[in-house]
Amino acid sequence: MSLIDDRRRADRREPLGFTLIELIVVVAVLGILLAIAIPSYLQAAERARRGSCFSNQRNLIPAALLYCSDHGITDGVLNSEILCEEGYCTEEIAECPCSEHVDFDDYNITIVGGDIETIECTVEGEEHRLDL
């Protein structure tokens, strides 16, 4: 081997890492993808919580009607906590998924003439209003 062969080999050496430009491009692309994905994820999560709240409210209807029938109530406002304590519904149904406190009193059910007039989510209000 000669000195000329060593120089030729040294000139053909490949870089060992990424260049600064390549790293900046990768970070920029990842930032753009995250800017698109995060709002979509947050909207999907909120839709899921809202749907779960609506499901809870629909499941409270027969529980409230049964409670009113058993206790002879024709008019009044029931709270989901009473239904939960009396065993007419589970704790999961009595709790809005958006609630920060586990207290099982997240829904008020208005009874008029023995029928349910409204169910109100006390956590999110109009955002989680189920039209009957």
Give a short synopsis of this structure.
The protein has 132 residues and is of the alpha+beta class. It is 51% helix and 13% strand.
Word description of this protein:
The chain is of the alpha+beta class and 132 residues long. Helices cover 51% and strands 13% of the residues. The chain has 3 helices and 3 strands, in the order H-H-E-H-E-E. The radius of gyration is 30 Å and the shape is rod-shaped. The mean pLDDT is 89.
Query: Total strand count, please?
Result: 3
- What sort of overall outline do the alpha carbons produce when their principal axes are compared? rod-shaped
Give the C-alpha Rg.
Answer: 30 Å
Order of helices and strands: HHEHEE
What distance separates the N and C termini? 91 Å
Layout of SSEs?
Elements: H1 3-11, H2 20-71, E1 76-79, H3 80-85, E2 107-112, E3 115-121
Antiparallel strand pairs: 1-2, 2-3
Structure characteristics:
single chain; 132 residues; alpha+beta; 3-stranded antiparallel sheet; 3 strands; 13% strand
